[in-house]
Specification:
Layout: E1 25-31, H1 38-46, E2 54-60, H2 67-76, E3 81-85, H3 91-101, E4 106-109, E5 114-116, H4 120-131, E6 135-142, H5 147-157, E7 175-176, E8 181-186, H6 187-192, H7 204-214, E9 219-229, H8 235-255, H9 262-287, H10 297-311, H11 319-342
Parallel strand pairs: 1-2, 1-4, 2-3, 6-9
Antiparallel strand pairs: 4-8, 5-9, 6-8, 7-9
Helix pairs in contact: 5-11, 8-11, 9-10, 9-11, 10-11
Amino acid sequence: MCAVTKAIPIDQAAPSGQAGAYPGVSVVMPVLNEERHLGSAVRRVLDQHYPGELEVIMAVGPSRDRTAEIAAQLASVDHRLQVVDNPAGRTPHALNLAIAAAKYDVIVRVDGHGELTDGYILKAVELLERTGAANVGGVMDAQGGTAFEEAVACAYTSRFGLGGSTFHLEQSPEGPADTVFLGVYRKEALVAVGGFDESMHRAQDWELNYRLRQSGHTVWFSPELKVTYRPRSSLKALVAQMYETGKWRREVVRRYPETAGLRYLAPPLAVCGIVVGTAAGVLGVIGGRSWLRLGFAAPLGYLGVLSVATVVPPPSLSAAARRQLPLVLAAMHLSWGCGFLVGLRRRRPSRR
């Protein structure tokens, strides 16, 4: 379905020095505890050399590290950068605050630990014009520095991990999509649907894209758009991330039951199967009932899946990362599944 918003005029033949030929772009960055990556993320935005006007708005939450100091220092030496305070510390709040402060008609979302690839903004603006979409986005190119991060990055793109989503796979074809990674939006479309849902502490991108599509807009995926993503660097951080993601995915399904699919239900089903199967097998051993021992087939089958996943990763994966891959996959599946089964402890208030 074609978007109902106006096309953004772009003169692709204009000399790169004529900034007026290109629409102004506001880059919005939700930032919290990003001391390690913020400088690189901002530098990659400024290194885009976008031929139109550009500003970067960092919505900084109450961080436990030097993030606020770094953001203020960056803004003090470049007039294109500004900082807005996000006392709530939540991503959707940060995005709405930054969008409210934005002065241009194109909104580019970038995370404080993400790095845009060369030409990302210009390609995205051209895609908005060519497709008439309300949001365009591309591939989450997960890249790790340590062996553990490398294993997590592999799991993100593996169909045994999180690779079922279009934006996790570089080979996915260009075209309309349910959702994309981060996104480059028409501001008027964002405002028309009410912006990001501040009651969705996770999965707010997916939820927003769902409302955009329900409003008659198009969300467009292109594998030419890539953002380097830095995965969690420890098992504890990964488990916490996946557990929270599972809880909020349960909330998405509660609000929009029609979106429940096998890919989202597989982790909680796996957790249930492993727990019930193991309990039945133990009871069979204790009680001498051989048929209950068949329950061990569930955890053994899951171990078999992990074994297959370890055999088939890309050849470029290091031996150290390959050894950690089963643990990473299990952590993702089981923590995500447990989060989904537990869900939110109390129902969140309606949007905004």
